[in-house]
Fold this protein.
Amino acid sequence: MEGLKSIIYFYGTGISALILSLTLIWASFKTARFFLKQMILSVAAVFVAVFLYESWGFFFKPHYSRSVKYSGTFFGNEWITGSKKNYGFGPREDTTLQCSAQCQWQDTLVYDVIYTITKGQRDVPGNNIRAKRKAYFLGCSFVFGDGLNDSCTLPAYFNFITRRQFNVQNMAFSGYGPHQALKLVEEKIVKNALPSDSSVAVYYFIYEHLLRAAGKMPWDVYGPHYEIENDSLVYKGPFHSEQDFETSYFGKRIASVWQHSMLYRGFFGPQETKTDADRVAAIVVRMNHLLRTRGVKLLVIVPEKENGQKYYDAFCQSLRKNGLDLFYIASCDNIRNKMPQQLFIKGDGHPTALFNEALAECLAQHITGN
């Protein structure tokens, strides 16, 4: 049953296009009128093109297509990825649990790992909870450590390389953005942290965060919504209320099939705007301001610019203008000297353990000066 559901959700658009094209071709043979026959065949050609495009995505774009399949107790687990007040979703904070996560690309097992989550946070093995200096790691799956065991995440390597000088907190989670990071700063760090002149916070930015903070991602409909009003960042509550999504059962399923298609991702998916970039810059600036009230220094990790990221430069310039400390991954020799295929999990796209270890070494040197 799960296999059938997966096929419908992830390949539904391509299968539907194939069925429609075959139906139209059959109908064209049933009509004797030349003009009508040509019209039907022309429409059928469009659906054939959609089917071929979806098929191409399956075989040649594994990171974006759903030839990648995820399984295990981490996915769809209400205790881990369910609704969470103020954040939209996330792990419960009243329990400790371990969960499994497997990823398969076609017939190849990409990873089979265990995540340990304690009081709403990914475990950092060997963490020195008595250390006076704290290191708060904020961000999404790149920091949480999708596809990696507990000891191979970025915070875990940072803890090991700095010889447990810090009480390292992995506060990131899969699918989070800067809006959840700011909420964590407001609700967890600022309220609970004692004044310090040596603690740090590390926020790992990726360009997709512009869309996430704008509420444009389908998995984050109840996340914290921030807007810029009169040059000030204002919290507006969640992106949506539950009443906004009183859609029929079939309406939700059709929408899910469409959003998983290559056609949607390639041509109709959400696009970032200058307002989105300005919002994230304002969120990061607010994070920095709040953290400084507790003597915590914020460091922003910035990946290399990719094609099509038209607001990347303006975003970075805005942060620098506001005194933010930016750490460019491109400046890390430990990463530049590695082969590209060593840095990201094939068929998944998240950083490998080797990438995290190399980045943690650079971060440790940047933060501690050693």
Summary: The mean pLDDT is 89. The first strand starts at residue 68 and ends at 71.
